[in-house]
Amino acid sequence: MERVEVELLAPRGNVTVIRLPWRRFPGVFIQGDSFSILEVAARAAARTVPEVRELADDLSNILALYARTLTEHGMSLPYTAAPAEGSTELLASGRILSQDLRLFLELASSYIDYDFDNSDWTAVTTAIQQTPALDYPLIGSASLTARVRQEDGRANVSVVITGTPNEALRIRLDTLFDVLTHESRRDRDQ
User: How far apart are CA 81 and CA 83, in angstroms?
Assistant: First the structure.
């Protein structure tokens, strides 16, 4: 491992711009966990938009270099590695009231030790207003994708959760759907 001084050209954060002493032009530094989220989102988009595949491949190659470098230096990854493409399956699906979507995503995220916060919620609500369906990655101790589709004049949403096969997680997600669907019915009956 070599230590060098770099020029910090942008404010500190998960993404910043730095110039290395041996480079004429600056480069972009992206924190490993933030980069992992970008790569998963690009990979999900590549399944629906073929033109994105090249971007996803480039991001995957950069992320692989990052992971390999950390491993070679005995450092752990600051994220859970995404499963190999094609190794995901349907874990659970159902319909819930739109007003219960945030609670659902927060609880599903807690099952995989992911802290679903206000920035996640802003991203979900902004995207769902602009597209008929949204694939949102949730990456913690496991990698999940929540496909959210607005239905019934915005009163209901359908949610499909895919991820690495995991029977315990499947049961928890099914139970979560059952509880929220039951609560929604009970509220309507009162």
Answer: 6
CA 28 centroid distance within chain: 21
- DSSP-derived 3-state class of residue 158: strand
Range of 19-23, 70-74, 154-158 with top mean pLDDT: 19-23
Contacts of 20 (CB under 8 A, 6+ apart): 4, 6, 27
> What tokens appear for 47 in the block?
């399944």
Q: DSSP 3-state assignment of 136?
A: strand
Q: Residues 160-190: pLDDT tens digits? A: 998 887 889 999 999 999 998 865 554 555 5
- Alpha-carbon gap, residue 27 to 45, rounded angstroms: 25
Give this prediction's pTM.
Answer: 0.54
Helices (H), the chain: 32-46, 53-72, 101-111, 118-130, 167-189
